[in-house]
Design a protein that fits this description.
Helix 3 runs parallel beside helix 5. By secondary structure, the protein is of the alpha/beta class. The strands form two sheets. A six-stranded mixed sheet has the order 6-7-8-3-9-10, with helices on both faces. The chain has one domain: P-loop containing nucleotide triphosphate hydrolases (Rossmann fold, 3-Layer(aba) Sandwich), CATH 3.40.50. It binds adenosine-5'-diphosphate (ADP) and magnesium ion. The site of adenosine-5'-diphosphate has 11 residues, from helix 1.
Length: 236
């Protein structure tokens, strides 16, 4: 089933084309990496999927419906985003998990939270802790859990391990893979780390200057001959 379809989309900011005439389809259940140099438009592209950014031209369809005609609140319930830098609100960590549910009048399932906390290597008492006392790694894991509270159909992950140490990175990566295997979720993961891409999605899109240079199986980046810019990025 086709989940997203982007047709000849462009994003123009201050007269500069950040995304240039890009076309892309994502099927339900895919786990896709988006890689590319800093400033290539990865975050801009990712933000389009749940309308955190908007296109200047072209068309985007979500489940066959024009994305512009979707309600952003219901869209973001289904298509969740985790930002590069962890951002928590309120005083205690648990407020972050309660808030998304309260917007949608959804009952809090304690077992679901406890199961997720365990998988994220977090103790239950973290819920009562002040956000400002949490480490960066803990904050990012709570952000991830906050997005998962609404059991999204699509997870958009924007360099979510870039401020984490190797131990936390491993915990988060394994957690994401578990979520993918356990739930019926589609994942689009932005990373500038090619080794991470190898460990995560099966398909990898290489973005440069707002254009797709390559869209192929992740393994093929490590074995096949690719364009010069990609090989340079991969240090081959
Ligand atoms: N709101 C904005 N205003 C001006 N320039 C922006 C804005 N958002 C992104 N850009 C520019 O667009 C380019 C792509 O940015 P971004 O999508 O963040 O790239 P990436 O995530 O690959 O590092 C960069 O040159 C960035 O400076
Ligand atoms: Mg970015």
């Amino acid at each position: 089933m086709l989940l997203f379809e982007m047709r000849n989309i462009s994003v123009k900011i201050n007269n500069t084309n950040i995304i240039k005439n890009l076309s892309l389809t994502i099927r339900k259940g895919e786990f896709i990496n988006i890689i590319g140099p800093s400033g290539s438009g990865k975050s801009t592209l990712l933000r389009l999927f749940n309308r955190l950014s908007s296109i200047s031209s072209g068309e985007i369809y979500y489940c066959g419906k024009n994305l512009n005609e979707t309600n952003p609140i219901s869209l973001r319930k289904e298509v969740g985003y985790v930002f590069q830098k962890p951002y928590l609100f309120g005083e205690k960590a648990k407020e972050n998990l309660e808030y998304p549910l309260s917007i949608h009048n959804i009952y809090l399932e304690k077992d679901y939270i406890f199961n997720m906390l365990r998988q994220l290597n977090l103790e239950q008492d973290i819920l009562e802790k002040d956000c400002e006392n949490l480490s960066g790694g803990e904050q990012q894991r709570i952000c991830l859990l906050r997005t998962l509270m609404l059991k999204p159909k699509v997870l958009l992950l924007d360099e979510i391990t870039s401020s984490l140490d190797p131990v936390n990175t491993k915990i988060v990566e394994e957690f994401i893979v578990n979520i993918y295997n356990e739930f019926d979720v589609t994942i689009v993961l932005v990373t500038h780390n090619i080794q991470q891409a190898k460990r995560m999605g099966k398909r990898t899109i290489f973005l440069e200057k707002g254009e797709i240079l390559e869209d192929a199986e992740t393994n093929s980046y490590f074995t096949g001959n690719k364009k010069e810019q990609i090989n340079r990025f991969f240090d081959k």
